[in-house]
Write a sequence for this structure.
């Protein structure tokens, strides 16, 4: 990047317009990042509120940049989505998450793993690519979930449905991320092979202090259950929110109050401690 000087400011501010040369250069930096192992996955636990079991983690990408340190996904994923480079990142994420999940299974930790995908990942080649990765690592497809935002799905729903159907036939499950922030057509939603609605954290974080947010959370839980779907809440930062979600019969909980995203080698220890707390 031409302006890679030590300005200390975020170089990847997604909202900023970039010139052609700068875009090319950021793209080659990202290419380099993939090829040189600078991307890392962190895993955030998802807890089942009915059983208190933690059997699921969501993979979240970070860029460990040699000069800038840990770059959060918000600073390069939007750029990667605009340029189409997201497909290379997603391919890497899928391979890494599936390999890690297979390693956990080999250790006797039967975890489900979710990966985040973007609208541009939903091409006709996605199902075969994921199938090939699952086979290579010997992981049954039922352990793999994909989280796709509501707005990405509604970008071109007629086209998305075909790819989603094929993922579903493989046994991969679909969670609709950031639910409530896009404009879902319920008619499309009903036709999509969805297993989970994931309520956006903007509603969850406000729900104990804002009646409108709580109403949205409550309505989404009812909508999901009426459609026969599991419902998850993200962004739980305190005990009161967790208790309220439990009372509202939300199925799955995720947030800093339960656990921050962890590097893969910290997941087993976290799980052991969690099980001790639950048993006590
Ligand atoms: P997301 O999929 O909605 O992920 C949830 C984000 O909320 C994560 O941020 C997570 O660290 C954060 N979070 C979790 N619990 C809490 C909480 O209690 N409070 C608050 N304030 N935040 C919480 P992160 O890791 O920075 O990821 C941001 C977004 O970047 C993700 O939002 C997702 O849209 C995108 N992203 C991350 N990894 C990938 C990836 O591998 N592929 C794609 N396409 N997008 C990704
Ligand atoms: Ca997600
Ligand atoms: Ca989300
Ligand atoms: Ca989000």
């Amino acid at each position: 990047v031409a302006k890679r000087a030590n300005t200390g400011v975020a170089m990847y501010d997604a909202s900023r317009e970039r010139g052609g040369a700068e875009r090319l250069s950021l793209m080659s930096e990202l290419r380099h990042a993939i090829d040189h192992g600078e991307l890392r996955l962190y895993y955030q636990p998802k807890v089942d509120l009915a059983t208190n079991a933690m059997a699921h983690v969501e993979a979240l990408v970070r860029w460990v940049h040699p000069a800038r340190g840990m770059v959060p996904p918000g600073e390069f994923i939007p750029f990667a989505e605009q340029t189409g480079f997201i497909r290379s990142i997603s391919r890497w994420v899928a391979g890494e998450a599936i390999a890690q999940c297979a390693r956990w299974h080999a250790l006797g930790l039967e975890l489900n793993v979710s990966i985040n995908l973007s609208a541009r990942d939903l091409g006709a080649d996605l199902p075969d690519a994921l199938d090939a990765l699952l086979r290579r690592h010997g992981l049954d497809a039922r352990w793999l979930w994909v989280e796709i935002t509501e707005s990405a799905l509604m970008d071109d729903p007629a086209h998305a449905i075909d790819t989603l159907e094929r993922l579903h036939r493989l046994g991969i499950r679909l969670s609709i991320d950031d639910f409530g922030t896009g404009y879902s057509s319920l008619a499309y939603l009903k036709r999509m092979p969805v297993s989970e609605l994931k309520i956006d954290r903007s509603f969850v974080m406000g729900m104990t202090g804002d009646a409108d947010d709580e109403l949205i959370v409550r309505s989404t839980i009812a909508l999901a259950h009426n459609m026969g779907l599991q419902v998850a809440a993200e962004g739980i930062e305190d005990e009161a929110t967790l208790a309220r979600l439990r009372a509202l019969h939300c199925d799955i909980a995720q947030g800093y109050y339960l656990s921050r995203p962890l590097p893969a080698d910290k997941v087993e220890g976290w799980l052991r401690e969690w099980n001790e707390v639950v048993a006590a």
